From TrEMBL:
InterPro entries: Falgellar_hook_FlgE_sf (IPR037058), Flag_bb_rod_N (IPR001444), Flagellar_basal_body_rod_CS (IPR019776), Flagellar_FlgE/F/G (IPR020013), Flg_bb/hook_C_dom (IPR010930), FlgE/F/G-like (IPR037925), FlgE_D2 (IPR011491), LlgE_F_G-like_D1 (IPR053967)
Keywords, alphabetical: Bacterial flagellum, Cell projection, Cilium, Flagellum
Species per Swiss-Prot/TrEMBL record: Candidatus Sedimenticola endophacoides
GO cellular component assignments: bacterial-type flagellum basal body; bacterial-type flagellum hook; cytosol
Described function: A flexible structure which links the flagellar filament to the drive apparatus in the basal body.
Flagellar hook protein FlgE D2 domain residues: 166-295
Protein name: Flagellar hook protein FlgE
Family of this protein: Belongs to the flagella basal body rod proteins family.
Protein location: Bacterial flagellum basal body
One annotated GO biological process: bacterial-type flagellum-dependent swarming motility
Residues annotated as domain Flagellar hook protein FlgE/F/G-like D1: 83-125
Amino acid sequence: MAFRIALSGLEAASTDLDVTGNNIANVSTSGFKESRAEFADIYSTSIQDLGTQSAGRGTRVARIAQQFSQGTIEFTSNNLDLAINGEGFFILGDDQGSRYYTRSGAFGVDREGYIVNHAGQRLQVYDAVAGSGGTTTFDTGALVDMQLELQPSPPNATTEISAGINLNAALDLPTSATFSIADPNSYNSATSITVYDSLGEAHTATLYFGKTSTANQWNVRMAVAVNDTTTTVVGPETVTFDSAGALSLPASGILSFSPYAFTNGAANMSVDVDFNTATQYAGEFGVNDLSQDGYASGRLNGIDVDDTGVVFARFTNGRSTSLGKVVLAKFNNPDGLGQEGGNNWNETFDSGDAQLGEAGTASFGVIQSGALELSNVDVATQLVKLIVAQRNFQANAKVISTSDQVTQAVINIR
């Protein structure tokens, strides 16, 4: 019997060595969670042994328990490296419709623009849905593969200019009665801004301001260079200020200029100029704010992920578009997850059903872009466990050696 008891101890110590060795081997594996061998003693359960004191029958491996403690977050230079600080798991999908869960957020982009891990499994997200007023919501009813927009961002024609300027109330009327952009004596002040047509081509728009004989009133003209040789001037429209220098007319603060016709095939462009923040004070002409709402087409320039998991595509035209929101999963019993290898787990009966949610809610955790969660293995602790397992193995081997000597002595009795 001692042989069998010691043999069970050898098997248990060997399993302990295997588990500890696997922990040490994966000390640099992103998102790896260490395991520990847990043992249970063995006692006879035969009818003859009931109610008697038994020496026991050895030990067995009760389970190999995973330890889902938080790993250290290490920052990287890749925005698609994602780390979770919390209980959540990233969700991955493959071409077969299978679903996997991982803590390893080392992602990249494949040839079709999908965000994938090293095995080509695709990151699952809630799809972005354009809402009213330019807002974006997310369809939380289904998971989709995260795919980047590889096509250029479309242009947007300028429709409004915001002109936060100060017109000098102390200026005299222009000395030239007939307006000409080539004659600076025919206007008092001017400022320029770049605008865009419907094809995304840039043009220079210049606002010209000329004081009129009516008190506190100014003529406003707009000139847009529609091609390399032609500049089209529209206006004048008038703005009027009160005695305190605040805009009084038009009441809406908006001047609408008639359409510009382009020769490059772009649609005619009409522009509203917002003067609500304009003033007329006795001081130098000044531009406090001058902006417009158009932009050119742009190429994909980078990807950002915020701490709630929203994936943004950045384009060279300065635009940023929401592409989706990373979905996280958590489990009532993560220790019960099945190990798939490749840094993945699968859902089991013991783990319970996956609960889907978003970063920053409940206990799913937050997402850190440009970072990876390191293995939670403590090498120093594992080395100590390695020594203990080795001693256990040696001690059980000594039991076998001693039992062999006893047996041999019995055999040698004459």
